[in-house]
Amino acid sequence: MDILLQALPLLLLLVLLGSGRVAPVPACLAALAASLPAVSAALPPGLDLTRFLATESVRALFLGLLPVATLSGGLLFSLAAAPRATEPVPASPRRAYLMILAGSFVESVTGFGVGAVFTVGALRAMGIGGAPGGGMAVLSLWLAPWGGLGPGLALGAALAHRPPHEVSFVTALPHAVWLLATPPVLWALLAKAGLPVPRAERLAQLGMQAAVAALVLLLGWLMPAETVGFLSAGLVLLPALWHFAPPRNAQARDRALAAIGPWALLTVVLLLARSWAGAPGWRPYTDLPAFQLTHVAVVLWAVSLGFLAKRQDGHLRFREAMLRMRRPAAAMLLYVLLGRWLAGSGAATGLAHGIAAGLGPLAPFAIPPLGFIGGLLTGSGVGAASSMMSVQADLGLAAGLPPWLAPGIHNFSSGAGAAYSFAMTAMVCGLLADGTRPPAIWRGVWPLILVALLVGWAAVAILHALA
């Protein structure tokens, strides 16, 4: 009975969102109500339910405001740094792929779905929206395990008592394979958007994606964890832009600089901020990440306001960004609240242990779906690590796996879950603002969700056998 209570909120959320008739915010409110019996049953004796809900809700507000501030800063920057020219951008399969790759670079540097914000804007400029545009925006999060310079990976490694470099390399092994499965899904989305992909273009995109996958493997082995994502995307993106769309005259160079320059500046400022060790910050909870002066959200807002100050229409763009963030912000805060109630009460841990106990000798194969569920519920690598990594590491050791295996597989699968999470797809739908709902996005990308689980299971079996 306990496992049914613990699974009920997630199942209800899936049913409501999957019906396509319930918007993300009311669906999450229903899931929150359905979680109360499981939360109450999981609380230790003596802990009052009302007191727990109040305490965890405040913690959720703190945790949720970090990605909301980052997302709003990313949207604000994308509007503040947009070129002044209003010429329509021709749509093409190659340009769409390069913008998705650029979004993955942005996500690797900023995290919290800002890469999807960038991609939505770039695709809208080409006239691509709806479910195909939303699916492509979600695809731009394909380097999510290293998103935002890897805070989720670092937190998970600390909770599992493993070196971050080790967790990064183990993550890269299945992730590189999964990346090779993404082009066919992209081609199907492009076809639905009225942009069928010719055979020659498919080969070119497959080659670029294979290069990204190879770099993920190589850099996961050789480089610090926080550099793997943006180097893997950037080392393919920049040569591809130069080869396929070189500026042929001074006017073209000026347009390229106007489009790329602000993002390059933002990347440099973020890397400089990340290099400031021991920056002051606010940390109301010792077990949660601090809100530092160098946080991505602070940098995004500071740089964005600087660009806005130079624009005559700066106040209008600021107002537009805040209006467009209302629905995504509300959805993200509610999903973080649901994740905190389930994780803080122990209901999520109880569900994990119940699934593992029911599987017996197949318990190691629970690690990929549990990691995916962690990302699906919390919408971020940080949230998935804080709620599930300790359980995953203990499960791996109890099942006889080498100590490095479970943390890496969890980081891979939770990254996939976060990319396709309730919070992230709701945020993308809010930005599209064209009536698209999460089920339409999931229908376009569901093969990648299935492949993520299959690759995770194969990695558990193969790496365990080779260890």
TrEMBL record:
Key words, A-Z: Membrane, Transmembrane, Transmembrane helix
Stretches that traverse the bilayer: 61-82, 97-123, 135-160, 172-191, 203-222, 228-245, 257-277, 289-309, 330-352, 372-391, 445-466
Protein name: L-lactate permease
